[in-house]
Amino acid sequence: MPCLAISATQRSRQLTERVQVQNGFFEQLRPRSIWRRHILYNKVGMAALGAFNRLRWPVTQIPVVLWPPAFEFFDAIESDIRNGHRVTDANDYLIDAERFDEFVRQVYAIDSASPNKIDIKLGSLVRPPLIVRVLTIRFWWPHMEVQDILNRVRCKDVHRLKERLRADYCEKITDYIFDIIIHSTETAAQGTGLRRLLVQYGTPVSD
């Protein structure tokens, strides 16, 4: 009897494995799977776009936002950035307190951040004064990382800069949670959208 039980269990497992293999095979034949697997993330096509982008963007200018929790370190962070990069513009904006949440959501909507990601950090971003500093950084021969065959890209250089600054300043920020120090758009074109939001929700702060 034990041998029969074991044999029955094995047959059940084999049947389950066959069903899973069949389901996986048919899943790969679905148009959505074909699109994603063989077209949208086609490695050869993405590599070709990467080479094209090197010629397309010999220079790019990306704005970064320093959030209110890092307010007392704005000058230090700006100095750190200027030590290794060309900053072409720097301005502070006081964001309308009654619309600050809306402003943050609109900023993250530019690069299609998930609502859950925004909800996690939103409360921690609301720290007076509600001032943000926006620095525009010029990158020569930037590494524009290709995300898919539609040539959606992100500037890898500004991404690395953000990672370094977060690591350097996270322990200095009270009640720090990830990503409440600095934010950037992925491309210069997205930066245009960010500047519109600053006009809509913010007031320039004079020195």
Structural account:
The chain folds into 2 domains: 2-40; 57-204, 2-Layer Sandwich (Alpha-Beta Plaits). The chain has 8 helices and 7 strands, in the order H-H-H-E-H-E-H-H-E-E-E-H-E-H-E. It has helices spanning 2-28, 31-40, 43-56, 74-84, 100-109, 115-125, 156-169, 188-201, and strands spanning 59-66, 86-95, 131-140, 144-146, 153-155, 182-184, 202-204. The strands form 2 sheets. Strands 6-1-3-2-7 form a 5-stranded antiparallel β-sheet, sandwiched between helices. Helix 5 packs antiparallel against helix 8 (188-201). The model is unreliable at 1-5 (pLDDT under 50).
Q: What is shown here, in short?
A:
By secondary structure, the chain is an alpha+beta fold. The chain has 8 helices and 7 strands; from the N terminus they run H-H-H-E-H-E-H-H-E-E-E-H-E-H-E. Helix 5 runs antiparallel to helix 8 (188-201).
Question: Top keywords for this entry?
Answer:
single chain; 207 residues; alpha+beta; 2 domains; 5-stranded antiparallel β-sheet; two-stranded antiparallel ribbon; 19% strand; globular
Present the secondary structure layout.
Blueprint: H1 2-28, H2 31-40, H3 43-56, E1 59-66, H4 74-84, E2 86-95, H5 100-109, H6 115-125, E3 131-140, E4 144-146, E5 153-155, H7 156-169, E6 182-184, H8 188-201, E7 202-204
Antiparallel strand pairs: 1-3, 1-6, 2-3, 2-7, 4-5
Helix pairs in contact: 5-8
